[in-house]
Amino acid sequence: MSASPDAHAYFTAHSQADGIYLLVNCIAGPAAQHIVEWLTDMGKCTKPYSIPLRSGHFLENLAVRRAALILGMSPYVAHFTKKFCDHLLTGTASYDEIAMIGNLTTDDDPLFNCLIKNLAHLRAWNGIEDFVQFEKFLSSHPELAAAIAYMEGRLVVSCEGCRKRTPLKLRRKANEMY
What is 12-57 written as a DSSP string? Predict the structure, then answer.
């Protein structure tokens, strides 16, 4: 229970409870198994350590991160968020990976915010190689499209008065808005 302050609080308040019950499909089975294996190994160690990333397993790592967040174990997967954000910042994320992040995160998730900010910046600064394909992708993911549009609006406001550094597309949008 020391790995999850949420679990500790729950079992302290409900001393007769013999387990926790989650909604169906709330946590992926392999992700839960990975966390249980980590908990078992960590129980044998003298110092706590983070849940290990599995190299080359993007979706599985994303599912483990989500499961850990649901279980209140966010400190043990903070490096997952950094790794995913670094991947997004390189501009090498595939549309499948972008869609997975969009589907497995919430609006208040730092990873979702990283995704949206990065895509809004790339779009505003004309950093997207195939703009037509990107717009087609966004048309099939309206939640992402709306979040990116909102973030672009915030970029326009924050760039008001920094004309030299503001991309032409944003300057045009700013003029249309005012």
Answer: HH-TT-------TTSS-HHHHHHHHHHHHHHTTSSS--PPPP-TT-
